[in-house]
């Protein structure tokens, strides 16, 4: 079992709809969780982090965390073509390091 | 957030040579990290660079192949030694700013290395 798992996609969503990206992790002791966006040919950009159960909203982005289910998600409301990118889920583990999922490629169709 | 720069942005190197990549942060960071990202893949941590002590390497990566320096809280270098075509990849550094509570890491723009 991989430490951090994401559906690699591609995930295709029409413009204006909600994009839902999911991530599960294996280390039950993980404390903080991050979503990075990576455009093709660019480095990862931190867009959200969450550390307590529930929802955290920032503009069009909402991160959701359920530690009991070891599940973290990212919702993008009113999706725009500029949201088309690969989204990386990362989990901070007790060994003082981030473990990344394989990423989900998201395409927003105009 | 922290602003991180890397040099060089890209290079084409011959087999058997070495390349040193520099990473500069605009603020002090406790920990700096070096990652490798191969085409179409996610990020793989090479090592954690701590100021004043030796780097901590992940499984599959060794100091002789990837020596790291961390002379101060804003700078680090990664050397890719005795390169082979399998080392062709994007190398990324990241840092976690000292004033952050939850270990957010910010990434440099990456160094695209091609070994011929």
What's the rounded overall pLDDT mean of chain A? 93
**What gap, in angstroms, lies between the N and C termini of chain B?**
36 Å
Assign a percent range to the helix content of chain B.
under 10%
Kindly name the structural category of chain A.
mainly beta
Percentage of residues in helical conformation of chain A: under 10%
Rg of chain A to the nearest angstrom?
13 Å
| Assembly annotation | heterodimer
* Cα separation of the termini of chain A: 36 Å
Low-confidence stretches of chain B at least 5 residues in length (pLDDT < 50)?
none
Weakly predicted, low-confidence segments of chain A: none
Biggest chain contact:
A-B, 21 and 19 residues
SSE arrangement of chain B, N to C: EEEEEEEEEEE
Which strand-content bin applies to the residues of chain B? over 45%
Number of helices of chain A: 0
Q: Estimate the global geometry of chain B from the Cα principal axes.
A: globular
* Backbone CA Rg of chain B: 13 Å
- How do the SSEs of chain A run, as a string of H and E? EEEEEEEEEEE
DSSP summary, beta strand count of chain A: 11
- Categorize the overall geometry of chain A: globular
Number of helices of chain B: 0
What is the typical, i.e. mean, pLDDT of chain B?
Answer: 92
Walk me through what this model shows.
The complex is a heterodimer of chains A (110) and B (116). By secondary structure, chain A is an all-beta fold. Chain A is built from no helices and 11 strands. By secondary structure, chain B is mainly beta. In chain B, 0% of the residues lie in helices and 53% in strands. Chain B has no helices and 11 strands. The mean pLDDT of chain B is 92. At the A-B interface, strand 4, strand 5, strand 9 and strand 10 of A face strand 5 and strand 10 of B.
Topology:
The complex is a heterodimer of chains A (110) and B (116).
Chain A: E1 4-6, E2 11-14, E3 19-25, E4 32-38, E5 45-50, E6 54-58, E7 61-66, E8 71-76, E9 85-93, E10 97-100, E11 104-109
Chain B: E1 4-7, E2 10-13, E3 19-25, E4 29-37, E5 43-50, E6 56-57, E7 68-72, E8 75-80, E9 89-97, E10 106-107, E11 111-115
Parallel strand pairs in B: 2-11
Antiparallel strand pairs in B: 1-3, 3-8, 4-5, 4-9, 5-6, 7-8, 9-10, 9-11
């Amino acid at each position: 079992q991989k430490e951090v798992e994401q559906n690699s996609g591609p995930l295709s969503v029409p413009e204006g709809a909600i994009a839902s990206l999911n991530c599960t992790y294996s280390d039950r002791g993980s404390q903080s969780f991050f979503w990075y966006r990576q455009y093709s040919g660019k480095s990862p950009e931190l867009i959200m982090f969450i550390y307590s159960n529930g929802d955290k909203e920032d503009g069009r982005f909402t991160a959701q965390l359920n530690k009991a289910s070891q599940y973290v998600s990212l919702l993008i409301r009113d999706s725009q073509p500029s949201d088309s990118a690969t989204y990386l889920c990362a989990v901070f583990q007790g060994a003082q390091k981030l473990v990344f999922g394989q990423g989900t490629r998201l395409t927003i169709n105009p | 957030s922290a602003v991180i720069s890397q040099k060089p942005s890209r290079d084409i190197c011959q087999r058997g040579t070495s390349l040193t990549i520099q990473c500069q942060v605009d603020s002090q960071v406790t920990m700096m990290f070096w990652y490798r990202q191969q085409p179409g893949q996610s990020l793989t941590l090479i090592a954690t660079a701590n100021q004043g002590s030796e780097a901590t390497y992940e499984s599959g990566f060794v100091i002789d192949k990837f020596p790291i320096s961390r002379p101060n809280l804003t700078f680090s270098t990664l050397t890719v030694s005795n390169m082979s075509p399998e080392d062709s990849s994007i190398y990324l550094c990241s840092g976690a700013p000292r004033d952050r509570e939850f270990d957010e890491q910010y990434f440099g723009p990456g160094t695209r290395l091609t070994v011929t």
